[in-house]
Amino acid sequence: MGNDTTATVAETKPWYLSKGVIGALVAAAAIVAGFFGVKIDPTTQQVVADQATAVIAAGVALGGAVLALYGRLKATKLIG
Fold first, then answer.
1. Longest dimension (CA), the chain
2. Residue 1, SS3?
3. CA–CA–CA angle 41, 20, 11 (5° rounding)
4. How far is the C-alpha of 40 from the C-alpha of 8, rounded, in Å?
5. What is the residue extent of each domain of the chain?
6. What separation in angstroms does the CA of 19 have from each of 40, 50, 62, 64?
7. Residue 52 contacts residue 27 (beta carbons within 8 Å)
8. pLDDT tens readout for residues 22-57
């Protein structure tokens, strides 16, 4: 009998693209806002978390594109 172990490769993502992390940060911000008299309902918190995730993902993608273009313009060797 052989040892049948299958290793699965877990995909990872940066912490700032995690809806769980962003949701927790938004919830924490809502708690702090509550101390100052600002009430944010759970539905609004979810919308803010979703929008924050989208904005961060777009910013990361744009940053990557700009960095790639900058790298190519500053390169001293031809692509071959």
1. 66
2. coil
3. 155
4. 40
5. 16-74
6. 18, 7, 19, 21
7. no
8. 889 999 999 999 889 988 888 998 999 899 989 999
Q: In the structure encoding, which two tokens stand for residue 45, read together?
A: 């918190």
Alpha carbon distance 28, 34 (integer Å): 10
| DSSP annotation of 17 | G
Place of tokens 């040892």: 3
Amino acid at 13: K
Q: Give dist(CA 30, CA 21) in Å, integer.
A: 14
Phi-psi region of 22 (alpha: psi -120 to 50; beta: other; left: phi over 0): alpha
The C-alpha angle with vertex 12 and arms to 69 and 62, in degrees rounded to 5, equals 25
What pTM value is reported for the model? Answer: 0.60
Residue type, 48: V
